[in-house]
Amino acid sequence: MSFSQIILEWYGVHKRDLPWRTTINPYNIWLSEIMLQQTRVAQGIPYYNKFLEAFPTVHDLARAPEEKVLKLWQGLGYYSRARNLHTTAKIIVDTYSGEFPTTYKEVLTLKGIGDYTASAIVSICFNQPEPVVDGNVYRVLARYFGVDMPINSTSGIKYFKSLAREVMDIENIRDYNQGIMEFGAIQCAPKSPDCDVCPLNHACVALKEDRVRELPVKLKKAKIKSRYFNYLVFIDEHGKTLWEQRKGKGIWQNMYQFPLMETDQSVDVSKIRELAVKNIGVDVGRVTLYNTDVIIHKLSHQHLYTQFWVLESTTPLTNGISWQSIFDFPVPVLISDFIKTFKI
């Protein structure tokens, strides 16, 4: 039995009952694939269901205000995925009359869609013979064939794509692609795979050479940058606070937050008071550090050392908004966790 036949047979027995597997509608498949980038399946399912409830079709998503899209995405992280999703929905409606393009090359031109996502969409929805290569597929191929080429190098990406095309099942590409991804997620797992019951163990190079833990190989990431965030939580006598929208191309673009002062290192109360008066122009009375232990929020290339400072304004905040209203805005998970616990 060939490699692809084994994958298909295994998938027929072990595939999980996931909501997007009940359809080949490209809108649903696209949505699930974008959501599952950098997100575990268990975490992604509730978001997928909420999105479809709010935006049943690509037309609904295209018409939605960005703030609503970001609010529904809140907690998933990597918010550029949500913004690209929204932009692409508009393109599909305006350029393709709401009909998803059916070829790999056309799908690849859409914002936020790379090789893997384009291949997944056209193979699952339109039965096009395009191999998918995600983290799970890299792992299965690297271990089974004993490939130690870095999966995140230019040459490695090209090699694994070619290898995936060579071994794929053209006749049943829809199930095969889902099968090999599922196989990597469940059977050929990153840590502690159960090789004794693996249907590929008879010919797995990594198992034969005792290299399962070593493969796949990945180049080391760039150095992690440390940043120090100080959120200034102003409160006046009327229960109002100051609120702002993040601009620019940095993290959390267009999300909302308390005024943010970024410093070179952790600072004390006197420095926060000075920054509040100098940069915000608000006279403050008592200043309190809400979290005595620094919150370390880890992103892919940076760690945010975060402190929330509560500042009592001595005068009414003329540009302030009521505390209750801030719950309606899309916010980073850092802010969300804080406002759930802080009581004014």
Automatic annotation (TrEMBL):
Q: Can you tell me where the transmembrane regions are?
A: none
Q: Which cofactor does it need?
A: [4Fe-4S] cluster
Give the co-factor note: Binds 1 [4Fe-4S] cluster.
- Which stretches make up the HhH-GPD domain? 35-186
Q: Which Gene3D superfamilies match?
A: Helix-hairpin-Helix base-excision DNA repair enzymes (C-terminal), Hypothetical protein, domain 2, Nucleoside Triphosphate Pyrophosphohydrolase
- Would you identify the family this protein belongs to, as annotated? Belongs to the Nth/MutY family.
The protein's name: Adenine DNA glycosylase
**Which gene produces this protein?**
mutY
